[in-house]
Automatic annotation (TrEMBL):
Cited NCBIfam families: ahpD_dom
Name of the molecule in the record: Carboxymuconolactone decarboxylase family protein
Segments crossing the lipid bilayer: none
PANTHER family named in the record: 4-CARBOXYMUCONOLACTONE DECARBOXYLASE FAMILY PROTEIN (AFU_ORTHOLOGUE AFUA_6G11590) (PTHR34846), BLL7811 PROTEIN (PTHR34846:SF7)
Position of the signal peptide: none
Domain Carboxymuconolactone decarboxylase-like as annotated: residue spans: 15-96
InterPro entries found in the cross-reference section: AhpD-like, AhpD_core, CMD-like
Organism of origin: Micromonospora mangrovi
């Protein structure tokens, strides 16, 4: 059952917030991490948080960037599928850990961080962390204000 949004998305109601969000987006997307990897971590965090608007936009953006249906359908079960590279797996593991902070006493264990660092340089890691945090930011706004996924017909 979908519920109506409580208010318009707060990020669109406050023009200064839109500017800041655009700066975060540009910073995260300019550090050399493949766009498909950023889209995958966005989608996975949004799935974990149950953010329908971000799951919808993430899947659509991934598809537009050339992602296959097979891989998109498998993101939630990425560990059990052969569809993802080692670097993508490291990014997905980092996304899950950074999203589920309260699930364990050491939210992002050294092994997860080390595996990500094996595949990404310092600036790329910074971009991944920033993008995961930004995704969680959007997820929390959308869940709090009940922003729905748009209805697509046809």
């Amino acid at each position: 059952m979908t519920q109506e949004a409580r208010i318009q998305n707060p990020a669109t109601l406050l023009p200064e917030a839109v500017k800041a969000i655009n700066l975060l987006y540009r910073a995260a997307h300019s550090a050399g991490v493949p766009g498909t990897t950023l889209e995958l971590v966005h989608l996975r965090a949004s799935q974990i948080n149950g953010c329908s608007a971000c799951v919808d936009s993430g899947a659509r953006a991934s598809r537009k960037a050339g992602e296959t249906e097979e891989r998109l359908f498998a993101v939630a079960a990425w560990r059990e599928t052969p569809y993802f590279t080692e670097a993508e797996r490291a990014a997905l593991a980092l996304s899950e850990a950074a999203t589920r902070l309260a699930d364990r006493s050491d939210p992002v264990p050294d092994a997860i961080w080390a595996e990500a660092a094996r595949h990404f340089g310092e600036q790329e890691l910074a971009a991944l962390v920033l993008w995961i945090a930004t995704t969680n930011f959007f997820n929390r706004i959308n869940a709090t204000t009940r922003q729905p996924a748009p209805q697509h017909w046809g």
